Amino acid sequence: MSLLDVNHLDVRFALRNGDIQALRDVSFSLDRGERLGIVGESGAGKSVAAFSLLNLISKPGYIAGGSIRFDGQELIGQSERALRHIRGHRISMIFQDPMMTLNPVLSIGDQMVECLKAHRRISTHEARGIALHKLVQVQIPSPEARLDQYPHELSGGMRQRVIIAIALLLDPDIIIADEPTTALDVTIQAEIMALLLSLCEKHNVGLILITHDLGVVSQVTQRMLVMYAGRVIEEGPTREIINDPQHPYTQGLMNALPQMATPGSRLNQIPGSMPSLDNLPDGCAFHPRCHFAMRSDGQRRQACYEHVPGFVTSGNCRVACHMVSEMLGYERIPAEETTS
């Protein structure tokens, strides 16, 4: 059994004009010590999927259906008290902006001690010792001095290292990293990701990395999910997807990388933009931007316009695409019958 199993997750936001479905039938799993990447454009549902795991979705959002099982325990429907034992203790989260996570009026040491004492019955002296050890692990220079400093006294890279140290404080089983290097320059990004990878491997911690950077995903993760308009559209081993993407959207993401363009020419791009969740097209949500939705004879590929594609297996990957189904000679599996 996997450490984390997510099946048919459905997340909605209740608005005046009706519910908007932010996640549709999302399923994936994570083994102990495994590293999983979730990629896609802004608005694809990556962060909503991550926040759902710990029921951190703000109202009017709510989990409308599905199952989230962690170490055999169903998390959906758990009390706030039970979830507090899971959050930060067994599943930690690293957010995009350290300054939104760290309290500006408390020292780094006070915040780390507070986190430890919220979950363990230990003295302040013991908690400071553990906090110091974690700062050493994330390679912060002069860690003793950092304990008494405030967030504004540290650089962006230092703050992100502190956030990683806090995430590791209670020796979690899973770390969810939501765009952990967005605000950092390229050199610091590489250092932070190398550090996170090393720590996860050393302590056998599972990692869910949410990012739009396919380069980072290819270097850090073992498996990846590609999301579009609230739905997983491709899943499989990272190396296999990067080397041979099957879904037209994944192909578009790969072709949009700067190194894929001829020097001096315009960068490749996927035409159009992601549809609004309150106005999704019929059939495959990607079909308005997909050149495979039209056949070579100029006729519409009707299935793309009329039916939500189910998953088919291509190599070691699962792909939700009618075009791939036809190429492999598979019959379309209705979306409601697909499983993880």
Q: Give me the number of helical elements.
A: 13
Widest β-sheet, arrangement of strands: 6-7-8-3-9-10-12-11
Main β sheet profile? 8 strands, mixed
H-E order: EEEHEEHEHHHHHEHEHEEHHHEEH
Strand content: 15-25%
Taking all Cα atoms into account, the compactness measure Rg is 21 Å
Low-confidence stretches: 331-340
User: Which structural category fits the helices and strands?
Assistant: alpha/beta
Roughly what is the average pLDDT, rounded to an integer?
A: 89
The helical percent reads 25-40%
Choose one word for the global shape.
globular
Number of strands: 12
- Separation of termini? 13 Å
Subcellular location: Cell inner membrane
Enzyme class: translocase
Catalytic activity: a dipeptide(out) + ATP + H2O = a dipeptide(in) + ADP + phosphate + H(+)
Keywords: ATP-binding, Cell membrane, Membrane, Nucleotide-binding, Transport
Topology:
Elements: E1 4-15, E2 18-30, E3 35-39, H1 46-53, E4 61-70, E5 73-74, H2 80-86, E6 91-94, H3 98-101, H4 108-119, H5 124-137, H6 143-147, H7 156-168, E7 174-178, H8 186-203, E8 206-210, H9 214-220, E9 223-228, E10 231-237, H10 238-243, H11 248-255, H12 302-306, E11 311-314, E12 317-320, H13 322-328
Parallel strand pairs: 3-8, 3-9, 6-7, 7-8
Antiparallel strand pairs: 1-2, 1-4, 4-5, 9-10, 10-12, 11-12
Helix pairs in contact: 4-5, 5-7, 7-8
Family: Belongs to the ABC transporter superfamily.
Keywords: ATP-binding, Cell membrane, Membrane, Nucleotide-binding, Transport
Domain ABC transporter: 6-254
List keywords for this structure.
disordered C terminus, 340 residues, eight-stranded mixed sheet, globular, four-stranded antiparallel sheet, 34% helix, 13 helices, alpha/beta
